[in-house]
Amino acid sequence: MSVVFEKPKALTDAVLHYCPGCTHGIIHRLVAEVIDELGIEGDTIGVAPVGCAVMAYNYFTCDFVQAAHGRAPAVATGVKRSDPSKIVFTYQGDGDLAAIGTAETVHAAARRENITVIFVNNAIYGMTGGQMAPTTLPGQVTQTSPYGRDVETVGYPVKVCELLSNVDGAAYLERVAVNNVKNVKNAKKAIKKAFQNQLEGKGFSLIEVVSTCPTNWGMTPEKALEWVDEKMIPYYPLGVYKDIYAEEEAK
Amino acid sequence: MSEKVLMKGNEAIAEAAIQAGCHHYFGYPITPQTEVAAYMAKRMPKIGGTFLQAESEVSAINMVIGVASTGKRVMTSSSSPGVSLKAEGISYLAGCDLPAVVVNVQRGGPGLGGIQPSQSDYFQSTKGGGHGDYRNIVLAPSSVQEMASLTVKAFDLADKYSMVSMILADGTMGQMMEPVSLDVGEVTKYEKPWALTGTKCEREHNIVNSLYLKPEELEIKNFERYEKYKAIEENEVMYEEYLMDDAEVCVVAFGITSRVAKNAINEARANGVKVGMIRPITVWPFPKKVLEAAADKCKAFICVEMSMGQMIEDVELAIRCKKPVYLCNRVGGMIPTPEEVLAKINEVNENGGAF
């Protein structure tokens, strides 16, 4: 009997703690598949965030360091500068990367730090039970925006790919989603490119993955996937926001 | 004898760190320690090391965490307000049991304070600064030579115990120039099987982490860490005794104030006052035993500090309040003069104390 589907080698046997219907599992799998396909498991060092993905270190078979909230790009900078032959990636949520860690994100990009950033944007703080995130949509109800995000008082969502596209050091920025098969396939392609860039010394690559949080959005997993299409993607359009090498080739 | 060179204290720290095998430094400009960063910026590229000016003190200490997690020697330096910003990272270093060296060239506080020398971060460095139960090894140099030799020692202790070693200097120590020998001797290499070096698909993955969601496990980690601290208190205390054999009044001072106090003590001795000094070189672990022994012989203690009286609490605890302890202090960037210390010695010798 031939095996037609199996768990990537880069994932451990640990049972994921994520809520039913949460797309972190898909994103973990995509990262692991890419690590397998590139054959880099033994040389990869991951940096875990604070937030839902804090225990990513239990799920990947590579070496891992857990960073303070928002500091993953700075920790990854230290790891990479210590041994540039290692493949270093961070895996961060929206609160971690786009609120408390904004400075670390922008400056790692500005330095064209040769790391890969997997940025999971689900428009909410999941781990702490559903508070307003920097990426929470206008009008979106959360525990700390109970009447809906009022942009007049709390301001507008942060669009990370658009923001970083103005940073000269950023090499490759793409926003993807994982709410249907086509999007999952595109997401994997982008994640693979972000790791390949690092192998080729091309510098700071960030993939923003529009994700779901059925538990804190108060939706069924199915409805959450639809909400990505209806609400999230119109505000956070998918696509390549920067690819300095493609731009060079085109010239 | 090795050759001596004339150097600023801040530069001596930087060169000694390199000699001790530290090839990664992350910093951020702040007076009065910026010479450390400037020196590293010049030297590191020449030895294939890393100098990186971070976007903040917060990022600098997290870059330190990154390098430390790979098992290599790494350092950051700052001055008081900047060390407050590093406190989060120092707590994580403690929680992850990572070795690193952090230098604090203190200035007056609180807040932005001033840029003149101070010792008012004693509590911050010896009692915590960041959150949680933890200790740092804290070394307090009193000469440019010690800025160098204690930096080398700090790296050794950090690796030996897998924790943060701090150099607690001050603006005077950082800025003044003295002859210094940079002969660091043999550098001990420590095995670091926990380091993130890539699994090569040949071993289980290493995880550097401070999160323990099960309270039973976190409690055990804390107990284990304090066993380590206990061993350090037993084995790593360093201090200097000055004219203590027949002393009736004992001055306690570290860093630059110990130099001032020494002048005052010499003057008092010339006038027949039996005064000596215990100078903590490690302010954590604190030299409790020697102080407690001194309490049996001396009638009074004088803490000379450039703070509102921080180390004095440790002295009182160490001697279990057996004898009165007086404070002789200047703050805000002011340095006590030998005359001020001498006046305090005379006053305490005549009126204070009890046998």
Task: Give a short synopsis of this structure.
The complex is a heterodimer of chains A (251) and B (355). With 251 residues, chain A is of the alpha/beta class. Helix content of chain A is 40%, strand content 16%.
Descriptive overview:
The complex is a heterodimer of chains A (251) and B (355). Chain A is α/β, with parallel strands linked by helices and 251 residues long. Chain A has one domain (24-250): Rossmann fold (3-Layer(aba) Sandwich). Chain A is 40% helix and 16% strand. A 7-stranded mixed β-sheet of chain A has the order 2-1-3-4-6-5-7, sandwiched between helices. In chain A, helix 1 crosses helix 8 (181-199) and helix 4 (94-100) packs across helix 5. The mean pLDDT of chain A is 97. Chain B is globular, with a radius of gyration of 21 Å. Chain B folds into 2 domains: 4-192 and 221-235, Rossmann fold (3-Layer(aba) Sandwich); 239-351, Rossmann fold. Chain B is an alpha/beta fold and 355 residues long. Helices cover 41% and strands 20% of the residues of chain B. The model of chain B has no long low-confidence stretch (mean pLDDT 97). Chain B has helices spanning 9-19, 34-43, 57-69, 80-95, 122-127, 144-161, 171-175, 215-235, 256-270, 288-297, 311-318, 338-351; strands at 4-8, 24-27, 50-53, 74-78, 100-106, 137-139, 164-170, 177-181, 207-208, 239-242, 249-252, 275-280, 282-284, 300-305, 325-329. The N and C termini of chain B lie far apart (45 Å). Chain B contains 12 helices and 15 strands. Chain B has a 7-stranded mixed β-sheet with strand order 3-2-4-5-7-6-13, with helices on both faces. In chain B, strands 10-12-11-14-15 form a 5-stranded mixed β-sheet, sandwiched between helices. In chain B, strands 1-8 form a two-stranded antiparallel ribbon. The interface between A and B is large, with 37 and 39 residues.
